[in-house]
Amino acid sequence: MNPKLVARDVCLEYRQPRTGDRLLALDRISLSINEGEFVSIVGPSGCGKTTFLSVVDGLLPATSGEIIVDGLSVNKPGPDRAVVFQDASLLPWRTVLKNVCYGLECIGVRASEAQERAMRFVQMVGLDGFENSYPYELSGGMQQRVNLARALVMDPKILLMDEPFAALDAQTREYMQEELLRIWEQANKTVLFITHQIDEAIFLSDRVIVFSARPGRVREHVTVDIERPRSLKLKRDPRFHALEDRIWSLIHDDALAQARS
Amino acid sequence: MPGNALQRYTPQLVGAAALLGFVGFWEAAAAYKLADPMFISSPSRIATVAAEMWEDPDFWRDVKVSSTEFIWGYLAAIAVGIPLGLVIGWYKRAQYALGPFIDVLNAVPRVTFMPIMVLWFGIGIWSKFAVVFLGAVIPIILSTYSGVRTNEARYLRVAKSFGASQMKTFTSIILPGTAPYIFTGLKYASGRALLGVVVGELYAATAGVGHMIAQAGNAFETDRVFFGVLLFTFTGLVVTSILARMEKRFDRWRPEGAVR
Q1: pLDDT average per 10 residues of sequence, chain A (261 residues)
Q2: Domain definitions of chain B by residue range
Q3: Gyration radius of chain B over CA positions
Q4: Which residue is closest to A90 within chain B, CA to CA?
Q5: What does CATH list as the number for B41-250?
Q6: All structural domains of chain A
Q7: In Å, how far is A194's CA from the nearest CA of chain B?
Q8: Which residues of A touch B252 (CB under 8 A)?
Q9: Which residues of B touch A59 (CB under 8 A)?
């Protein structure tokens, strides 16, 4: 199978604005994601997961290495990738429908057509009836649905999700995880999902990539060999717990080493 | 339900009662000579003067002169201030170049330029127009500028991620995000503009409501002075309420009762 997304030796170096010191945030990240695959990146906080996602989206230029989508190197945002942001970042002065239209407007789709297409995705994320609401009228979970619809409407090849459920309460988060799987199965997208929650990563993914603490490195690939469709009951399954333990100890070792150094 | 209605309008009712009480006290103070009506006038005297002036073409000429100064000076300040604020907010270099001028102009009360404006533009409408413009343009520039600067990085990131053009970013992110700041500036500037009219006309003028007030003051005609003051007050209130109404239209996306 042809890989949809490849990262080859991606390094990112910051210059700290105050001290002028160089800081390596990403250290030779190489990974490859197949078409239709759902891959999560987990790692201790500060391991550069979100930074890596920004590089994949093209918002941050890599210091070296390259990002390849469908065999072509990319270095700036494009309609082949769409981000679901961590804080929903909905434009507060736009209604739900107009928020979902935003990306289409940016690439010059006619307003009437954009609205028609957006409406389908508003329905897909279960928000029909709310299309004319403003973001402040929505709960956190609903805002993230809009955030997801805004990315999906672009029909991207790859969906980049940056800890989209981190700010939600535990119940809403689990509900949204199930919803995401339902939507993902409908939309049939390649997904790169960033999270710091191990159970979330396992529950959603075909494969979990564990990052090590700063500088971010690929520590291990863990395949989640559990059949789909999945329901939340899976989180009680022994196979699930075994994976959870394994990933937890990988991260834990690393966090300990970091704390000692 | 009358009980509910009463509760709902409590602030208005109490406010109106206080205002009426004050007017009544004022009238009584004048009628019973607690203070000399020559100095404090009285509501009924002011009303009488108002009725007289309503018939007086000179008064209407004054109104026309003052409103011309106010409206054109204020509109010119808006026409220059908003674009300039947007430009210096958006382009760092423009801010570096123009910032010092704006800061200096902001630090000095603009009415101090009145004598120079009179030298340059004469004692007619144009010197007042200039002072109104100078007074109003600075707050509009500053608030527009700070609106652009405080635009949240996360919205700009959304625009960038969706590949929005510069123009699209400007119209879809910068402008709507700046609108509330612009309105704050416009409201503040309307007060400055009115101040420009009054001070300009008090200082040197041949016509205008401020000029009328100055003359009346010199002649100890306190009734007319108070009438002029009330006229300016009324104008200020009307302008502010028009702006508040426009702001509400632009601000539908804000939670009810959110105060900046």
Answers
A1: 87 85 88 93 86 93 92 90 91 94 92 92 89 92 92 92 90 89 88 94 94 86 90 90 92 75 66
A2: 1-35, 41-250
A3: 23
A4: B155
A5: 1.10.3720.10
A6: 3-80+158-260 (3.40.50.300), 87-155 (no CATH)
A7: 17
A8: 134
A9: 157, 160-161
